[in-house]
Hints:
Blueprint: E1 7-8, H1 11-14, E2 23-25, E3 46-48, E4 69-71, E5 92-94, E6 115-117, E7 138-140, E8 161-163, E9 184-186, H2 197-200, E10 207-209, E11 217-218, E12 230-232, E13 240-241, E14 253-255, E15 276-278, E16 299-301, E17 322-324, E18 345-347, E19 368-370, E20 391-394, H3 401-407, E21 413-415
Parallel strand pairs: 1-2, 2-3, 3-4, 4-5, 5-6, 6-7, 7-8, 8-9, 9-10, 10-12, 11-13, 12-14, 14-15, 15-16, 16-17, 17-18, 18-19, 19-20, 20-21
Amino acid sequence: MKQPKTDFTSLEEALETPALARKLDLTDQNLSELSPQIGRLVNLQELHIGKNKITALPSEVLSLKLLRVFKAQQNRFLDFPEPITYLPYLEEIDLRENKISDIPSRIRNLFHLKRLNLAWNNIQTLQEDITWLVGLKHLNLKYNKIVRLPEKLGLMSELRELILDWNHLRELPQGISGLRKLRKLSLAENKFEVIPLCITQIESLVELNMSWNLLSHLDGNLAQMPYLMDLDLHNNRIATLDPGFCKAPSLKCLNLRDNRIKELPEEFVSLTNLRFIDLSENNLKDFPPVFCNLPNLRHINLRFNRISDIPSCIEGLQQLRELYLGGNLLSYLPAAVFKLESLNFLGLTENKLTDFTLDNFENSAIQGLYLGGNPIHKPVFGLDKLRFLKQLTLSRHIENKEDICNKLCKIPVHIQ
């Protein structure tokens, strides 16, 4: 027996059997308004009207008492559509990419709301009313103009993810430390000069992004966060790392790209769980020797520093999958690099290499090899023996580059 249709992409079709309609998707239909007839779909649970030109909702939306999902992204709302604040069972609201400047106080009545996305709007202030959403798990407010957060933010005890990138925040309320279930906090592109102490008191935090701020020092208090695994601080002004930071017990991914770091403290060897490290675009003159004592490293990015030498102890990093050293001052590679049996990608572009040999490298797992922008003139032989090679960049000076391209005709070869 054929099941009755419950999902529709046309209001007219849904109105033929209004009591059966559960989902109405009017996304990207060039609508400038929503018909008052929508109120007849009293059993509707999902309403999608994103990518239209709608500026307001008809009052008949008040009849959609069972609505759980409301998505109206990329429209032309100047105000938060108040009719939806009267729909008690709403679980998800998506109003990103509108021009909303304020959130009505009635939002406090949406006790069942779990997801709220208001990214890319014009919101400047969050009132305390939003803290009444004690069941909210995901809150996205990036790309607004928020200058402060409500003091009682910690009352939103179910919050798992808080996204506040690209705002005007300089500080956080102490109450944020009460978010005991928060796993992801993103504060990229704000105006923080220090990492607020209250962040380090959120013990549940797994992922913290404070890139594109004004930080000058990496604080040791971060080591107090027992579950922090992913820390992104790229594009700051960090010059020094507190040795105490190196006691962070669970850290796996650390992004410090585009800072002012000249060296790492010896205590860095304590970060034994580290898998990913990005120190590209800093002021390093040496390959950090502490890396050789971090055997779990899978990814090292040291592009655009001033490194002229790679220590032979790198041979011990047998879990290493990706090594990016482009934009440095390397004139040769030690044999140890060719003994990294798990290495998949090796980036050496824009260095000072004058030759490149593949001794003991033929049986490697290399998939991507990047040699462009080096003054290599001598022929390079054996590239066709790299069984897993999928990407190759060559210096335009290599004498036998055309021969290499002919032998590797099945993979993309770029000349630089």
